[in-house]
């Protein structure tokens, strides 16, 4: 199914790309006039059991990490249960493996990590889930950073708006076998609705709107509904085309959302982030998962498991860091869309379509400044709330969050 047409010129005389042509749009909608939630045969049920010490590992020869005592996630969560069973259902193992395969194709450099040698532990960065707060604490308390040259991949480049940029970040693919086999891997997750709202703000202020920041029009971001449309298109394209994530030279480029199945790293599902691959092409182990909803309780349990002294400064409460867009006009638009997402979309209703803060856009600009025409929002495929749940179904099924 062809989703991309090159060489269309808009009235603004900008060279652009149409994401969907008329025939593709019609075919895509006709095929799904009766919206149904996808099913996966035997994989339709998944444990909603939450535990923090587990063996969600694709590194089959890895011995048990040194920190292996069990604990239970935040008492305030209604889904706390016995430890050690999280994600052990066949369904969730299958979902993790599927995400790992997509990582191999589209994110072979791996998920960003912070290696904490002092604790023999590795923090796996799930974006928009208190990640900045956790990274800041690890650097402040233990001198650990994802820029540590001991673990960072010095050869990793990304193509940004101004050419090649050297990242020098530690990733799952840059970790040595000693760390993979003997360190405790931990992460934190967040309710998919709240995480998506925060990711939407950061994605369209910082990453995908470089052209807009330079003064191009339209200055407003795509609406929440259009973002869900875009995610569906990219997810379907990635699933049907093994070469979707590749550029002409065979490399991947996360700056260009036309080759990114999640549009931007901040919109990636938590399960996708947790399935980052190693240099051996296997997904990393995960031994502890905390929740942002019970951040400090779970942080304390993690430090207990890692045998951190009761008086250590790392035990001070973590402070949540929330970013607003520094472009005032854009922040007003993003805020209005996030409120519409919470008050309309999640309630199964259409978001407002009129007014400067709500009108759908015709084009967005990718990381290198190219104009991309995007479709008008439509409910032909079903309500946006159901489609949102489908996009993040792995997180709902395997992280124990209720669909609201």
Identify the notable features of this structure and list them briefly.
404 residues, alpha/beta, four-stranded mixed β-sheet, 12 helices
How would you portray this structure in words?
The radius of gyration is 21 Å and the shape is globular. The strands form 3 sheets. A 4-stranded mixed β-sheet has the order 1-2-10-9. It has a 4-stranded mixed β-sheet with strand order 3-4-7-8. It has 12 helices and 10 strands. By secondary structure, the chain is α/β, with parallel strands linked by helices. Residues 1-18, 20-64 and 66-85 have low confidence and may be disordered. Helices cover 32% and strands 10% of the residues.
What does the secondary structure layout of this molecule look like, with pairings?
Elements: E1 5-9, E2 15-18, H1 22-30, H2 90-106, E3 113-116, E4 121-124, H3 131-142, E5 157-160, E6 163-166, H4 177-182, E7 184-189, H5 192-207, H6 210-213, H7 224-240, H8 270-274, E8 288-291, H9 295-305, H10 328-343, E9 363-365, E10 371-373, H11 384-391, H12 393-399
Parallel strand pairs: 2-10, 4-7, 7-8
Antiparallel strand pairs: 1-2, 3-4, 5-6, 9-10
Helix pairs in contact: 5-10, 7-11
Number of strands: 10
Catalogue the unreliable spans: 1-18, 20-64, 66-85
Content of β-strand: 5-15%
Radius of gyration, in Å, reads 21 Å
Shape: globular
Concise overview:
This protein is an alpha/beta fold and about 400 residues long.
């Amino acid at each position: 199914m062809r989703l991309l047409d090159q060489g269309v010129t808009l009235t603004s005389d900008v060279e652009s790309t149409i994401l969907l042509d008329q025939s593709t749009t019609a075919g895509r909608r006709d095929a799904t006039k009766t919206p149904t939630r996808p099913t996966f045969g035997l994989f339709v049920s998944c444990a909603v059991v939450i535990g923090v010490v587990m063996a969600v590992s694709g590194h089959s020869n890895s011995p048990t990490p040194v920190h292996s005592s069990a604990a239970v996630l935040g008492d305030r969560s209604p889904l706390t249960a016995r430890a050690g069973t999280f994600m052990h259902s066949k369904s969730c193992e299958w979902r993790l493996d599927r995400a790992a395969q997509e990582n191999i194709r589209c994110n072979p450099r791996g998920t960003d990590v912070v290696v904490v040698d002092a604790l023999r532990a590795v923090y796996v960065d799930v974006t928009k889930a208190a990640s900045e707060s956790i990274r800041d604490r690890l650097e402040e308390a233990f001198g650990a950073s994802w820029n540590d040259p001991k673990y960072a991949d010095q050869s990793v480049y990304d193509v940004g708006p101004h050419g090649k940029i050297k990242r020098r970040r530690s990733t799952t693919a840059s970790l040595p076998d000693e760390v993979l086999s003997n360190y405790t891997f931990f992460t934190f997750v967040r309710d998919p609705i709240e995480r998506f709202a925060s990711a939407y703000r950061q994605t369209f202020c910082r990453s995908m709107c470089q052209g807009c920041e330079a003064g191009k029009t339209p200055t407003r971001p795509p609406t929440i509904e259009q973002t869900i449309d875009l995610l569906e298109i990219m997810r379907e394209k990635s699933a049907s085309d093994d070469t979707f994530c590749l550029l002409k030279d065979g490399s991947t480029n996360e700056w260009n959302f036309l080759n990114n199945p999640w549009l931007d790293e901040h919109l990636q599902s938590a399960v996708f982030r947790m399935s980052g691959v190693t240099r051996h092409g296997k997904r990393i182990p995960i031994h502890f998962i905390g929740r942002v909803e019970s951040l400090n309780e779970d942080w304390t349990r993690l430090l207990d498991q890692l045998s951190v002294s009761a008086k250590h400064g790392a035990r001070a409460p973590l402070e949540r860091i929330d970013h607003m867009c520094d472009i005032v006009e854009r922040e007003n638009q993003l805020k209005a869309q996030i409120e519409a997402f919470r008050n309309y979309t999640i309630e199964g209703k259409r978001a407002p379509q009129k007014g400067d803060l709500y009108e759908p856009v015709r084009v967005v600009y990718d990381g290198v400044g190219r104009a991309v025409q995007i479709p008008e929002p439509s409910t032909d495929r079903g309500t946006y709330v159901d489609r949102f749940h489908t996009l993040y179904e792995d997180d709902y099924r395997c992280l124990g969050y209720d669909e609201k």
